[in-house]
Amino acid sequence: MILIVNLSLAVDHIVEVDDLRAGEVQRSRGARSAAGGKGVNVARVLKTLGEPSLLLGFAGGRAGDLIESGLRAEQLSSRCTRVRDESRTCLIINDRSRNEQTVINAPGAAIAEAEWRDFEATYARELPGAELVIINGSLPPNLHADTYARLTTAARDTGRRVLLDCAGAPLRHALGAHPFLVKINAAEAEEFEATKLETAEFSDAPVADFSGAARAARRLCEAGAENALVTLGAQGALLDFAGVRYKFVAPRVRAVNSVGSGDAALAAFATALRQGLTPQAAGAFAVAAGAANALHGAGGCSADEITELLPRVGCELEL
After folding, report:
1. What's the pLDDT band for 112 if we cut at 50, 70, 90?
2. Less packed terminus of the chain by CB within 10 Å, N or C?
3. What angle do CA 11, 15, 17 make, to 5 degrees?
4. Smallest Cα–Cα separation from 177: which of 240, 224, 134?
5. CA-CA distance, 80 to 98, in Å (whole number)?
6. CA-based end-to-end distance of the chain
7. Is pLDDT of 38 > 70?
8. In this structure, how many other beta carbons lie within 10 angstroms of the beta carbon of residue 27?
């Protein structure tokens, strides 16, 4: 079983529009709500890959009820710690004309001390049954920035490998706890490096330079991560694993919704690790899953789509 920690679970309210124009009154083509959060996207992809998982997080109020009922409807196993405050609702505006998504993430619910103790007890109970632990997403607003560091240490103390996907102060604290893998995206790499990543323009699509991503990955490892994966969206990904750098070029797809592609990549990488695949095979599988997700968004890809895209992932090693 893969244990997923997503403390700031959400209701995702998705609105479809033909052509988003800021400052104007517009009619939507439709709207729907679903359980959301990075860990939910991960759980969806793990399920489609046949990997058992358990999702832990907080749920409060009517939004929390919707999160829990949505997870049950999708048959995603979870243990939500109930809290007094209302869970967050995030808005995703899908612009059909541009295939672009505008995402407005609300802050999570505040967590009382007793509620946090309840979560810690659940986490401690579930750790022995986990083969891997994935910790991802933003922290609730009142939890200390070292929260992920403490959760990582607790997992490592039981011999579990931790795959961490976060940014900012929580990432900087957690690096000192030596997670097995840190995954960040291009924007998070720019924040971590405090500089813009290089890209080179070829034809009508940006092609990754990889040098900026390689520097960010190396710095993550120097700061405490055992390994690092920097996802670059449609460009691919850079994996720094056991001192070897793998540059993965993503296959071209007609992207519809890229929300959750990094989460899909992380789920596929975790699956590959659990199955004992090589780092190169795991990285290629992750990039294929990220591309497959872009056909749907929010972890909606199928195992067949990932398998079909896998042979089209390019890879170059740098020893």
Report:
1. very high
2. C
3. 165
4. 224
5. 36
6. 33
7. yes
8. 6
The answer for residues whose C-beta is within 8 angstroms of residue 266's C-beta and 6 or more apart is 42, 134, 136, 163, 165, 183, 229, 286
Phi, psi (deg, nearest 5) at residue 285: -65, -40
Listed residue (115, 53, 104) closest to 82, CA to CA: 115
Cα angle vertex 225, ends 4, 164, to 5°?
Answer: 15
Nearest alpha-carbon partner for 101 in 111, 109, 91: 91
- Rounded to an integer, the average pLDDT of 152-176 is 97
**Quick check: helix, strand or coil at residue 49?**
coil
CA distances from 241 to 180, 188, 228 (A): 10, 19, 7
* Sign for the pseudo-dihedral over CA of 159, 161, 166, 171: positive
SS3 151: helix
Residue 204 has pLDDT above 50, yes or no: no
Q: How far apart are CA 39 and CA 3, in angstroms?
A: 10
**pTM (predicted TM-score):** 0.92
Strands (E), the chain: 2-5, 10-17, 30-36, 53-60, 78-83, 88-95, 100-104, 132-136, 161-165, 181-185, 199-202, 205-208, 227-231, 236-241, 244-249, 314-318
